[in-house]
Amino acid sequence: MTANGARVLIIDDELPIRRLLKVALAAYGYELAEASSGQEGLQQAAVLHPDLIILDLGLPDVDGLEVIKRLREWSQAPIIILSVREQESEKIKALDAGADDYVTKPFSMGELLARMRVAWRHAAKTTDEPVLSLGELTIDLAHRLVKMKGREVKLTPIEYEILKNLALHAGRVLTHHHLLRTIWGPEYEEETHYLRVYIGQLRRKIEPDPANPRYIITEPGVGYRLAVKEEGANPC
């Protein structure tokens, strides 16, 4: 990706750093947006769909690691950490959470630009869609909000994780093993009854007719998929 027109979101509570980055990166043709807190950064990311995010870990409201995790629920935009935290353990935590690279303050602009180019080369070529609308069902991944016919649906954390995983791969079949491993852990890969119970609960909350589901479709003996258009299917 070239600099010309690329959108970069800077999430940092230090005004001098934001000013420095905006001036320097704008000179290379980048379009810049900024946020001074984690929550503002998450909101900006959902609205702007940045091509790259520069993130400070030491934010005043939400820890940077949590911001990474929240972003990675729906976005594959490269994330470069810019932080004074230089311990190896902090870098590992950030990278494990989903960051693409880590630059320690103070930094040189040349180094940051090089890291940005590398991150873009390795970025997954996916389209960020934080809001998925399927008929009367709306799933807002950026804000962890599910609505049916415009009304919010209250889900338990596990119910939400199941729906989120299905939404991130809408139209694709996710196997029982994949869902169990992702949500409960590898030691639960054979516990398919866990899924049946929670899928049943989830259907009762989002399906107009849980006995004839339109959204969460069963692929017998394989797993489940989120239909990209309403359809009826085996409810087992």
TrEMBL record:
InterPro entries noted in UniProt: CheY-like_superfamily, OmpR/PhoB-type_DNA-bd, Sig_transdc_resp-reg_receiver, WalR-like, WH-like_DNA-bd_sf
Protein name: Stage 0 sporulation protein A homolog
The organism of origin for this protein: Neomoorella glycerini
One of the record's GO cellular component terms: protein-DNA complex
Coiled-coil spans in chain: none
Keywords associated with the record: Cytoplasm, DNA-binding, Phosphoprotein, Transcription, Transcription regulation, Two-component regulatory system
UniProt keyword Transcription regulation, yes or no: yes
Lineage: Bacteria, Bacillati, Bacillota, Clostridia, Neomoorellales
Gene Ontology BP, a term: positive regulation of DNA-templated transcription
